[in-house]
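Replying to the earlier thread about multi-chain prediction with a worked example.

Input:
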Amino acid sequence: MKLISGSGNRPDASVEQRDKILGMLERGKITAEEAGRLLDAIGAPSQAAAESAPANKPRFIRIAVNGADEKVDIRVPLGLLRAGIKLGAVIPQDARTRVEDKLSEKGISFNLSDLNERTVEDLIDSLSDLSLDVEDGDETVRIFCE
Amino acid sequence: MIPPLVLTIRVARGRKRVINLWLPLLVVWPLAVLGILVGAPLAIAAAAIQPGRARTWLLLGPRAFGVLCSTRGLSVAVKDQTDEVDLRFR
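Result:
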């Protein structure tokens, strides 16, 4: 039996298919193993959707300043942020402690150990919705991810 | 990971283009790889001499190369009434 997965936009379709499969299992038309495979196949579209979700991850952060006399447009790849964090991770612990002490002297309390790849990935994921617009008279500042 | 292949730098003053550089980084990166290959035995030796910092010595080169590769797409454009500067890693 071949199941054609739906577009994924109709949640009722997967519930119907699941009930159909369980009905066939109950009537003994298919084995438990076959039922498991069919149920996994129903779950495949959501997996495919989840796998395609990273395609919407932002790749750049843009800073655009538009003023009466000047314009600034900076585009920074977010991969640079990841690579910078990875580079920072190889800093020896004693050097890292010295950096943290210098930062705290300036009033910045920051633990470099908290900055790891997972934290950065979470940060980048949440940046996808970032959109900051500031207006001050004739000047506008926009910060967003694309 | 592909490093940026071209760096373009444009500087204009008024309507006159003062600097218009098109740098093929494609030529530079093999030299950087050569530097890594030469530096790798030195890094291994340093890691053996200082075991406490072995991770730093061994990973510093590849991670620094990763940072360079990540600059692809970086662009900075600044324009005011008279001058204009445009820098792009492609």
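The CA atoms of residues 67 and 139 of chain A lie 4 Å apart.

Feel free to reuse this layout for your own posts.
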